[in-house]
Amino acid sequence: MAKQRWGMQDCANALLVAMLIATAWMFGRTHSVDQSRYPGGDFLQFYTAGAVIDRGNPERLYDQSYFREFERSIYGDQPAHYSLYPPMMAAAMSVLARFSFGPALAMWLVLQGACLAGACVLLYRTMAFSRPWRWTALLALFTVFPLWMMLYLKHLTSFLLLVVAVGLTLHARDRRATAGLLLSLLAIKPQLAAGVFLWLLLRRDVRAIAGMVMGGLLQVAATAALLGPGIFVQYVEAFPTINRVLEGGRFTPITQGAIAGTLLDLLTFRGYHCRESLLASELMRLLPAVVAGCLLLQVMRVRRRLTGQGAAFHQAVRYEHAALVLFLVLAPPYLLSYDLLLLAIPLVHILSSPRWRAGMVLYLAMTPVALIAYLVMGISLLPFVALWTMAQVAAAARSLAMETLGPGAASTPALTGVLRWFRWGRWRSTRFFGVRPFIAAFPNAFLSFPNSVESPLSPDEKGGDE
Fold first, then answer.
1. Angle between helix 356-364 and helix 382-405 axes, rounded to 10 deg
2. Are 88 and 110 in contact (CB under 8 A)?
3. Angle, vertex CA 267, rays to CA 265 and CA 268, nearest 5
4. Does residue 165 carry a pLDDT above 90?
5. Is the pLDDT assigned to residue 272 strictly greater than 70?
């Protein structure tokens, strides 16, 4: 009987399985060592917030000294988190806080596992691959380090991924009010909710906006009924403290996920103390959001021009959703690496498009192989790669419009200028994962980074992990 030769998919699956085993082993070893001093990961912060509510002290939820001492009284003398999340999160966690820590953690892990499984099922069904390659794509998603960071730190990113994936799927199926209602759950991560709401405003999507506003009002009403209306006043008053905590955090390449933070770290390593200058720090936070917003506008304009064009319109919608999630990742001034698990959505849309190479570059930058390079250089390239990928999506959408409607169909001088800026200095090859525009922008920036990297897991270092 003749032996069947391995095909490309078999080789890809074997490579991904090997990478998955190596990644699981690496994170498993670190997890077993770290849990002795840091049990529960970021679930500690959520559980403590719920416990403060369950003990009948909602008025002290944003008293940071009380919150940290309360956490230490429960878990012993170890680094304590800050109270950073909106009151809705504490109200929801008060249900789990009625149980002891062990059972509550087990229920939390089951809930996050169910959300991750639901998101994977939805992504599998929305993939434009053939059925065998869908399993390969899912296997690839399980090898990205944001997912492992989420599991390692027991964060809620799988819930956010499920909300965004289901919300965008409903929106694409013209169930916009329901989509807006569901996307309002992103209010527990305000920077993501603000990005989605801005996108809906730019679309002038009245039904989705109404659904999102209604969902937000329902959350506020339920939280106010449980904790009292004054809790939101306390949350607003706590903004300056929360901002100082986040600005005071120094994130390592493993944990840094915001391009604004990466730029500030980059300039700080080069001796430019931009964090001490209000104007410079605000400019570093504003510039990436403006550029990403311009690229999102380019894709939205293409989608409008392709309305009624059948397959081209559906592809444009996929590009728009990919650009939106990239915008959600790039625009916020504070975002950590596990939040980058949301990039699974644009990966699915880009890898199944003619611009699949951009998706491959983004995927490679999310693997532990790239993570090793980040640790050596002392800076994460992933936010830059995400911005480059968004430029590629905008260029692909523009090309799609020109192929469907003819030359000049998607020409906008200001937005076209942004795309030309990205093409300037770009290598024709894919060396360095296609990030030369950013290396060219900061000559010699990577020559003097420290080789030693501090542990990214101490909540005192990272300001409680919002």
1. 170
2. no
3. 60
4. yes
5. no
The CA distance from 400 to 315, in Å, is 9
Q: Please report, to the nearest 10 degrees, the dihedral formed by the alpha carbons of residues 64, 97, 31, 373 taken in order.
A: -50
Q: So what's the pLDDT on residue 6?
A: 62
Nearest to 378 by CA among 226, 304, 270: 270
Nearest 5°: phi and psi at 407?
-60, 145
For residue 211, which phi and psi values (nearest 5 degrees)? -65, -40
Q: At what angle do helices 259-269 and 278-305 cross, to 10 degrees?
A: 140
Spatial CB neighbours of 12, under 8 Å, sequence gap ≥ 6: 136
Q: pTM of the predicted model, to two decimals?
A: 0.84
Tell me if 449 sits within 8 A of 378, measured CB to CB.
yes
Q: How far apart are CA 420 and CA 429, in angstroms?
A: 17
Q: Are the C-beta atoms of 319 and 400 separated by less than 8 Å?
A: yes
Contact between 371 and 148 under an 8 Å Cβ cutoff? The reply is no
Nearest to 342 by CA among 43, 140, 119, 23: 119
Q: Which of 237, 235, 241 is nearest to 88 (CA)?
A: 235
Q: Taking the CB of residue 141, how many other CB atoms lie within 10 A of it?
A: 22
pLDDT of 412 above 90 = no
Buried b (16+ CB within 10 A) or exposed e, 443-455: eebbeebeeeeee
Convert 6-22 to b/e letters by CB count within 10 Å (16 or more is b): eeeeeebbeebeebeee
**Angstrom distance (rounded) from CA 378 to CA 376:** 6
Q: Which residue has the tokens 């939040």?
A: 339
The DSSP secondary-structure symbol of 333 reads S
Residues 6+ apart with CB under 8 A from 412: 298, 301
Distance CA 31, CA 150 (A): 12
Torsional class of 79: left (φ above 0), alpha (ψ -120 to 50), beta (otherwise): beta
Given this model, what pLDDT does residue 322 score? 93
Structure tokens at 268: 């700080």
- Residue 418 pLDDT: 60
What interhelical angle do 101-126 and 43-54 show, nearest 10? Answer: 120
